[in-house]
C-alpha cells in the first residue's frame, strides 16, 4: 500500500543519530538558521513548546492571540496553556488559510499576537498582514507580535519572499509528518538574534535534558519507521490503524487534539541525537520540496475528478505539505482508494472552536468553513519517496472513481 505520508529517511539518519555529541543541538540551530536565511534559531522538543516558551519569555499572558479556526489544535493548546486567549478566524475555501479581512476585524486593544498559519504549504499574503498589523499597532498603542506558523509551509514564498522572514518569528514542527524531521522536535526562528537569545536563555533555565532512556526509545522509534512505511508492509500498518486501538495507544500522548494539554515531555530539551537527524534532513530539504512540487503539478494537470470535488489550487510558491482535496463524502472515497492500495489521509478532522474544550472561545461564531473542511478533506500522497509510476497509478485510480 502507498502510505499517505512517509519521512524521507535513508541510512544517513541512522548514522547521524549514532554520531551525536554535546554540541549537536547548537549545530542544528546554526544550520537551520543558515538554511532558511534567519538571524537565529532555537530548538525545542515540539513546536508547541516553542510557542509556549515564546509567550513566557516575553511576558505575554492574559492576552488575545489571533489564530486560525482550522489548523492543528496544538497552536491553540500552547495559547491556552500559557494563559492566553485564542481568537479564532475562519478559513477561506480557496487555499484554506485564514480570511485576511477577518483578521483585521478580530484585533482589539487586548490583541498581542497574530499567528498566520500557512496551511498545507500555501503562503498567506504577508504584505497585507503586515499592513494590518502596522495600522492596528497605531490604534492600540502597543506591539502586536507576528508569529509565522510554518509547520506545513517551511520556506513557502509569497511574491518571491519566504514567509519565514516576515514578521517577528517563525514556528516549525519537526515530527515525521513534516517536510523535514528530527523524529520529534520543533524550532523557532528569529530575524533579530537578540530575541532568539532571550528565548534560548528561558529555555536553558526552564527546560531539562532528556533521560538516556528517552534516547533509546527514540532510536527504537527511528528504526521502526523504516519497515513501518515500507510499501510492502504498510498495508498491515494501515489495517492496525483503521481496525484496532493499538497504534492510537502508542501515539495518543503526543497527538492531543481534543484535550488541552501538552505531551509529558514538553519541557525536555531536544535530544542531541534528534538534532543530528535534523541536520541530515536539512541537506535533503531542497530536493524534498522540489519533488513535492513536481508531484503536486502532476496531480494538478492530470486529475479528472467529479464536478463536486474541489482540487487544491496550484500556487508556485507553495511547498505542498499536503495535496488536500475537498470531497462531498469522504469515507467512501477513502475506502475505495484503500481497496486499490492507496491511502488517502483525513486532513485536520476538526474545527478547533467546535472542540469541547474550545467552545467557550468561539464568541458565538459558527466558523462554517472550518467545520466544512473538517468533515470533507482528503489528502493524496505527495511525499518525495513516490516514484513516477506510483504517481501515475494514483492519478489513474482517482480518475476512475465514480
Summary of the model, kept short:
This protein is of the alpha/beta class. It is built from 15 helices and twelve strands.
* Overall tally of domains: 2
User: Which spans of ≥5 residues are poorly predicted at pLDDT below 50?
Assistant: none
- Total strands: the figure is 12
CATH superfamily of the largest domain: Type I PLP-dependent aspartate aminotransferase-like (Major domain)
In CATH, the topology of the largest domain is named Aspartate Aminotransferase, domain 2
* Quaternary class: single chain
For the termini, the CA-CA separation is 21 Å
Summarize the topology:
Elements: H1 11-18, H2 24-35, E1 40-44, H3 47-57, E2 64-68, H4 74-81, E3 85-89, H5 100-106, E4 111-114, H6 126-140, E5 145-149, E6 157-158, E7 161-162, E8 169-173, E9 186-190, H7 193-206, H8 212-228, H9 234-243, H10 246-251, H11 272-282, H12 285-302, E10 323-326, H13 330-339, E11 345-346, H14 368-376, E12 377-380, H15 388-400
Parallel strand pairs: 2-3, 2-4, 4-5, 5-8
Antiparallel strand pairs: 1-9, 6-7, 8-9, 10-12, 11-12
Helix pairs in contact: 1-11, 2-11, 3-4, 3-7, 12-15
Summarize the structure in words.
With 402 residues, the chain is α/β, with parallel strands linked by helices. The protein has two domains: 11-206, Aspartate Aminotransferase, domain 2 (3-Layer(aba) Sandwich); 285-400, Aspartate Aminotransferase, domain 1, CATH 3.90.1150. The protein has 15 helices and twelve strands. The protein has helices at residues 11-18, 24-35, 47-57, 74-81, 100-106, 126-140, 193-206, 212-228, 234-243, 246-251, 272-282, 285-302, 330-339, 368-376, 388-400, and strands at residues 40-44, 64-68, 85-89, 111-114, 145-149, 157-158, 161-162, 169-173, 186-190, 323-326, 345-346, 377-380. The strands form three sheets. Strands 1-9-8-5-4-2-3 form a seven-stranded mixed sheet, with helices on both faces. It is globular, with a radius of gyration of 20 Å. The mean pLDDT is 95.
Amino acid at each position: 500500500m502507498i502510505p499517505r505520508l512517509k519521512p524521507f529517511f535513508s541510512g544517513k539518519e541512522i548514522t547521524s543519530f549514532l554520531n551525536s555529541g554535546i554540541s549537536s543541538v547548537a549545530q542544528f540551530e546554526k544550520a537551520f538558521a543558515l538554511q532558511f536565511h534567519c538571524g537565529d534559531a532555537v530548538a525545542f522538543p515540539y513546536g508547541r513548546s516553542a510557542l509556549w516558551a515564546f509567550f513566557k519569555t516575553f511576558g505575554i499572558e492574559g492576552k488575545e492571540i489571533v489564530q486560525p479556526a482550522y489548523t492543528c489544535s496544538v497552536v491553540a493548546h500552547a495559547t491556552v496553556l500559557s494563559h492566553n486567549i485564542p481568537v479564532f478566524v475562519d478559513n477561506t475555501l480557496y487555499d484554506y488559510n485564514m480570511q485576511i479581512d477577518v483578521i483585521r476585524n478580530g484585533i482589539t486593544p487586548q490583541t498581542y499576537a497574530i499567528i498566520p498559519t500557512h496551511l498545507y504549504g500555501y503562503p498567506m499574503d504577508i504584505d497585507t498582514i503586515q499592513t494590518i498589523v502596522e495600522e492596528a499597532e497605531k490604534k492600540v498603542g502597543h506591539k502586536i507580535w507576528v508569529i509565522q506558523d510554518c509547520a506545513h509551509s517551511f520556506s513557502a514564498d509569497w511574491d518571491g519572499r519566504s514567509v519565514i522572514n516576515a514578521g517577528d518569528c517563525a514556528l516549525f514542527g519537526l515530527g515525521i509528518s513534516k517536510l523535514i524531521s528530527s523524529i520529534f522536535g520543533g524550532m523557532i526562528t528569529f530575524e533579530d538574534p537578540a530575541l532568539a537569545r532571550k528565548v534560548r536563555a528561558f529555555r536553558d533555565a526552564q527546560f531539562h535534558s532528556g533521560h538516556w532512556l528517552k534516547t533509546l526509545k527514540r532510536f527504537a522509534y527511528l528504526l521502526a519507521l523504516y519497515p513501518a512505511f515500507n510499501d510492502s508492509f504498510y498495508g498491515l500498518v494501515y489495517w492496525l490503524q483503521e481496525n484496532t486501538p493499538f497504534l492510537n495507544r502508542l501515539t495518543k500522548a503526543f497527538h492531543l487534539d481534543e484535550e488541552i494539554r501538552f505531551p509529558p515531555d514538553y519541557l525536555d530539551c531536544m535530544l542531541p541525537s534528534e538534532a543530528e537527524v535534523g541536520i541530515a534532513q536539512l541537506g535533503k530539504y531542497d530536493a524534498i520540496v522540489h519533488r513535492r512540487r513536481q508531484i503536486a503539478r502532476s496531480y494538478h494537470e492530470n486529475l479528472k475528478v467529479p464536478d463536486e470535488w474541489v482540487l487544491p489550487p496550484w500556487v508556485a510558491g507553495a511547498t505542498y505539505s499536503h495535496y488536500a482535496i475537498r470531497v462531498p463524502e469522504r469515507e467512501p472515497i477513502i475506502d475505495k482508494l484503500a481497496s486499490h492500495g492507496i491511502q488517502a489521509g483525513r486532513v485536520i478532522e476538526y474545527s478547533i472552536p467546535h472542540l469541547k474544550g474550545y467552545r467557550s472561545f468561539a464568541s458565538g461564531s459558527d466558523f462554517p468553513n472550518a467545520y466544512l473542511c473538517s468533515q470533507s478533506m482528503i489528502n493524496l500522497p505527495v511525499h518525495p519517496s513516490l516514484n513516477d509510476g506510483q504517481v501515475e497509478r494514483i492519478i489513474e485510480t482517482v480518475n476512475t472513481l465514480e
